[in-house]
Inverse folding.
């Protein structure tokens, strides 16, 4: 079975621009979460979506938004990019039931100049 | 609030040495789940193990073993006979029951030299 996929792999944007990152979960997984990993730190939770509804939001500004589609894929949008948004953005999907483990994609490396 | 501490920032060992990665956590919840993930240079987080708070049985999987001690809020990870391919960043993480987010430690960089 295919794992979590993310696109694009790398992205370079300028301050003030907008970016959209995409994620496809493992087949059968209905929950998708987004994490931001700044260099040298552990991942920080941004959003969780389940059945197209937001189920959790981390301590991130309103410039960050996300949505989940009927096929359970997801988009993360970031507006008015700042230099500090440069990071690896990880998407994770979670199997149904109370297993709690999350399976991560390869990430999108965003560089803001 | 939950917190995970990985006090070892970086560890270097020579191939075939045993190495233990420490993880200490804080939570007020009685039911929670602990994880270890491996992040190779490619960047993808690879799931290694999940442990439930109500199951303190240690686990061994090949060269990997995990020691969960609720009394000291620790969930340590040991690699026996380390190999160069074990070189990566290792993260310990915590999620509470019915929670929606993994809380990660800062990670430990493991360098295994041949």
């Amino acid at each position: 079975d295919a794992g979590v996929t993310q696109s694009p792999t790398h992205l370079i944007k300028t301050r003030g621009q907008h970016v959209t990152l995409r994620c496809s979960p493992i087949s059968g997984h209905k929950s998708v979460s987004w994490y931001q990993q700044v260099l040298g730190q552990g991942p920080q939770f941004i959003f969780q979506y389940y059945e197209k509804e937001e189920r959790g939001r981390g301590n991130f500004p309103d410039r960050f938004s996300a949505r989940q589609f009927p096929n359970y894929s997801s988009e993360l949008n970031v507006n008015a990019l700042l230099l500090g948004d440069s990071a690896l953005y990880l998407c994770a999907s979670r199997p149904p039931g109370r297993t709690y483990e999350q399976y991560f994609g390869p990430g999108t490396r965003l560089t803001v100049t | 609030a939950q917190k995970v501490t990985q006090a070892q920032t970086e560890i270097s060992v020579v191939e075939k040495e045993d190495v233990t990665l420490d993880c200490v956590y804080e939570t007020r919840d009685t039911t929670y789940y602990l994880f270890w993930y491996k992040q190779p240079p490619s960047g993808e987080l690879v799931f290694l193990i999940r442990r439930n708070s109500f199951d303190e049985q240690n686990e061994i999987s090949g060269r990997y073993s995990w020691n969960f001690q609720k009394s000291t809020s620790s969930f340590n990870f040991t690699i026996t006979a380390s190999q160069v391919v074990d070189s990566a960043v290792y993260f310990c993480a915590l999620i509470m029951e019915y929670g929606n987010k993994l809380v990660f430690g800062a990670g430990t960089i493991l360098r295994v030299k041949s």
Remarks:
- Chain A is about 0% helix and 50% strand.
- Chain A has a mean pLDDT of 95.
- Chain A touches chain B at residues 33, 35, 40-45, 48, 55-56, 58, 88, 90, 92, 98-107, 109 (CB under 8 Å).
- The two ends of chain A are 37 Å apart (CA to CA).
